Amino acid sequence: MNQIDTPPRLYEWAGRKSAQPVDPALEGLVRDIIGAVADKWTMLILETLEAHGTMRFTELGHKVGEISQKMLTKTLRRMEADGLVTRKVHPVVPPHVDYTLTEMGRGLGAAFCSVWIWAETHHDEIEQARTAFAKRQGVAVVRT
Amino acid sequence: MNQIDTPPRLYEWAGRKSAQPVDPALEGLVRDIIGAVADKWTMLILETLEAHGTMRFTELGHKVGEISQKMLTKTLRRMEADGLVTRKVHPVVPPHVDYTLTEMGRGLGAAFCSVWIWAETHHDEIEQARTAFAKRQGVAVVRT
DNA sequence: CTGGATCCGGTTTGATACTG
DNA sequence: CAGTATCAAACCGGATCCAG
After folding, report:
1. In this structure, is the CB of residue A35 within 7 Å of any atom belonging to strand D?
2. pLDDT attached to residue B138
């Protein structure tokens, strides 16, 4: 391991490494996992599956809320690939597919739990902060 | 503007509400907060600021890693609006702006901590799951 | 009929160039 | 140094279409 500092991108903005001897492989992998998991739909689906247990595709979509089929499919695929959910297809007519959290998926759900609690605890403080920020900026109607 | 819904056919996919009497305002707000916070860059910036304390814009960009200026700016703005960081501008000739986590921001960082631990704990299991999934899928679905 | 794959249009992100 | 401006690329949502 010598001089692996080869800049992956030529532009000088990011990609600078700190001088810390962190294992780059593990670092990158953990970062990648965070990138895959720190996603709105992933969290929402995880939460829904945790709350209701095994669910079918359409039912899951309804319970999650405003999610498109495409994102539901895509997110579930990635979660399946990462070992967070198992996908079971019953070869019947009409099709029946159900999704269940794996042990690891439940673990992630538990880990995210504190974030949900944080959100519920601080929601009004966040709203105040948003209002104050909007006022400070003059015109920034962040209404969704 | 009445009656114009269902133009060809209001598609029945999402937007269904569960019959549960959950406070819709709070529900939507918490969901919105999760949507804002469950973001790759938000988590990464949060982690970096938590680890290194108050930092300047460029330094933060370097430490976070492969992030573009635009996303760094944008994410920091939203975090500021949500009250997660404070942005302090020193009116000096080379501009000097530094970012610091607020109390609430540190709270969110602590909440995310368990997710980082989860990622570090299960990284090899995830890798295995990914490999297994790729092998399972990769061979079968090769089409034209 | 359910699950999901595909095409199209709008939005978001990324990479570069430029400014105070 | 700390951003904006700008254009291309990737992504997301919605609708349609398809397979079992």
Report:
1. no
2. 65
